[in-house]
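Long-time lurker, finally posting.

We've been working with Hippurate hydrolase (Nitrospirillum iridis) and I want a structural starting point before designing mutants. I don't trust myself to interpret raw outputs, so I'm hoping someone here can both generate the structure tokens and explain anything notable. Sequence follows.
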Amino acid sequence: MPEIDDLIEPLIAFRRDLHAHPELGFAEHRTAGRIAAALEDLGIEVHTGIGGTGVVGVLKAGGSDRRVGLRADMDALPIHEQTGLPYQSRHTGAFHGCGHDGHVSMLLGAARHLARTRRFDGTIHFIFQPAEEGQGGARAMVQDGLFQRFPCDRVFALHNWPDLPAGTAATRPGPIMAAADKFEIRLEGRGGHAALPHQTPDAILAASDLVGQLNTIIARRIPPMANAVLSVTQINGGHAHNVLPATVTVVGTVRSFDPAVQDRIEAALRQVAEGVAIASGARVTVTYDRYYPATINDADAAAEALAVAKSVCPQAILAPEPAFTSEDFAFMLQACKGAYLWLGQGREGGSAPLHHPQYDFNDDIMATGIRLHVALAERLLSA
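Top reply, 14 upvotes:
Generated this for you. Predicted structure of Hippurate hydrolase:
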């Protein structure tokens, strides 16, 4: 597709403008406005305000009733950027540290090319999704009638992947990204003087015991062939060297791929917390939030995506295993058959990982991402 090459320079400028003006989940007003304006300039039918700040562009050609969806996420992360780039974030505490600025730009490039060539027969829905970073923007769009208003036979999304060489595409049937759960365990004693520990349940000691026991759940309560991770990420409590705090909280995450394993981990976590409470005399409250399900690719859609990727990418591979990171495109895949792909953006000499303060999207993969979007639409809607 040599005619794509003339799109790249203006799209890089567009991407870097988004990078300099990042917006957090459900606050992507400038971003959504720029996307809507770009689609309108192409003569594409535009719908805004879907699931909050979501945007959908509709492009039709021919008379077929076949329909395909292509999705890009558009929110930034609450991280302070440390790249020193000329187009570095102008907003303290907001940063495109996951490449969503690149995802938006690649999908807009595909929209421009498809609107110009129209070598397909059916309807393409360009889905620009808010609030992927932990806030469930995909769920909000689905609940707002995304697939009732814009039905799709297949829906696809791609995400840049620093661990793969630039331009290499990868996907797999079945699980590709993990379910993400968050837990918060609150341990309550009465508090008191550190010199008189016998007068109050020691919430810090109970929390220490709890952390050790939580880290045995995967090893001793889950079948060895199951894939799961439990990590404690916060312990909060206390304010003075000579005071036993009344309350300590233990916070963490669980990642898994099988709902049965997910159930088993949650049940074990609650049992462990109750046991520590009984042993220590502290009161315990467990809050367990399953905020993202596992991202499960439809087998046929994944096979179609891999075949398309082999035709336009420098390399396309079957991913040998899923990742333990999570993705709220999972909600769209629960509502519509489709597949999620990784597009390598690794640079020679190494690349900063996703969510790192020195991360930046690799503009060298822009053309490959556009070609992949275009080829997916044209194959699924072949004339």
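Before you design anything, note these points.
The chain has a mean pLDDT of 97.
Residues 155 and 338 are 5 Å apart (CA to CA).
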